[in-house]
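Ticket #524: bound-state structure for adenosine-5'-triphosphate.
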Amino acid sequence: MSATSPILSAVAVTKIFSAGRGRDVTAVQDLSLDVFEGEFVCMLGASGCGKSTMLNIFAGFEKPTSGAVMLRGKPILGIEPRCGMVFQSYALFPWKTVRGNVEFGLKMQGISSAQRRERGAYFIDMVKLRGFENHYPTELSGGMQQRVTLARLLAADPEVLLMDEPFAALDAMTRQVMQEELLRIHEASGKTIVFITHSIDEALILSRRIVVMSARPGRVKAVVVNDLPAPRHVDVQMSPQYNALKMQIWNLVESEIRQHDEATRRLSRTDE
Amino acid sequence: MRLIWLLSLSSVAMVLALWAVATGRGWVTPIFLPSPEMVFQEARLVFLSGDLAQDIAMSTKRVFGGYALAALVSVPLGVLMGVWRPAKAIMDPFVSLLRPLPSITWIPMTMLWLGIGESQKIAIVFVGSWIYILLYTIESTKRVDPLLIRAARNLGASDLALMWEVILPGALPGILTGLKVTLAIAWSCVLSAEMIAAQNGLGALIWRAKAWGNLALVLVGMVCISITVLIADWIANRIERLLLPWERNRRV
Ligand SMILES: Nc1ncnc2c1ncn2[C@@H]1O[C@H](COP(=O)(O)OP(=O)(O)OP(=O)(O)O)[C@@H](O)[C@H]1O
Ligand SMILES: [Mg+2]
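RESOLUTION: The complex was predicted; output attached.
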């Protein structure tokens, strides 16, 4: 795989948000990452370390302050529909029903309404929302809304799936079902997936490679290759190999959080 | 719910009773405040003669003529100004200059240009309402959630699709609020225009009644204006509910 060129890559990306009067925040610093065709990569890191920011840069919503992101070797300069996004805050269209939301991407591609209806129904079924086609997002629970966003993205069928904590609002059981669906889709379609999560377990079950990010400013702290046998089921969590990997990642993450805490404590002390 | 209704009803009854007693006992002379019976008699007269219905119809027609014209101009213009800065830059100086002018200040000029016929009344309603519709439309267009615009772009929306599928529906609740607020303003415009120069309409009715010293008829006119605007508002609310089905079961 390393012989081929990456489908998605970040080259020394730095992103600084200026909030005025010296209140600049460096969200991402000098981050480089190659994602290969068909790969399932998880990004793991503490809250506020710049994961969403990095995903927004991949989708072309934000421009890096320095560095570049490329899709198939070409720089991403504007919003890139080939890198589809599941938003952390859902971003559903409130004036569209579940069906209207899920079919939106297909409509934009100029697909006939009969075909839209059929493909939309398939994904609505997949996220277990049959019977809610004519509901508006405001009438759904948070977890249901999150599943609508997922179906909306899958129906639009982009080349790369950027997923920002897509299962965060789900209960443990629904989450597991959705994870299995996603793995099945990944296997069947060979899509490239960049997936953000807070959960080490989720990262271990889903991905082939885990990018552990440092505390803010976000950098790549370590890349852990997850060579647990696939297809993975929940019982993989019993294996010693699983526990060893989990320990390894836990230590990486923990030391980051410690360091971050100390840094902020030092900062607040100098503030006084 | 029933208790709330009862309270509202009894408060109205109280005021009516107080009014009846105050005029019946001669605490106030009928020249300053006619009794409820006198007002009711007067209402019966103008209603039976058909004059009242005609006056209401005339005013309503004028309001809707000018208001529809204003909406037709201001909604598209406001959306354009909301999404495209140059349009806003071009229009802003005129909007700022025209906004402080109450519609009655346009009466002399419109009379000179258009006489005192229907088109002058419609013009007064138009100049009195277009700016409010415009300001509401600009504001609600600019307030459409940028995250939804990103999402639409990410799903491959073209400029045209973005406008039609995201910006317009996103701005619609605000635009409708603006239209509703402006409806009451449009009514006050037509009434002042009719008081100054008109043969018929509710404003003319009140002004004529005042000239005759018929205070009961003035009150009849005022009550009619109130009721007509309330009905118009009720219809506007129904239309709003129809156009915004997603706002109906909004969770908090
Ligand atoms: N538009 C913005 N303007 C200013 N600062 C921002 C902006 N977006 C993000 N930030 C800052 O950048 C940092 C990283 O934010 P980001 O949303 O990428 O974190 P995250 O890793 O996704 O966190 P979480 O896991 O909580 O979602 C934060 O400190 C945040 O305050
Ligand atoms: Mg985030």
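RESOLUTION NOTES: Chain A has two domains: 1-82+177-267, 83-157.
TICKET STATUS: resolved
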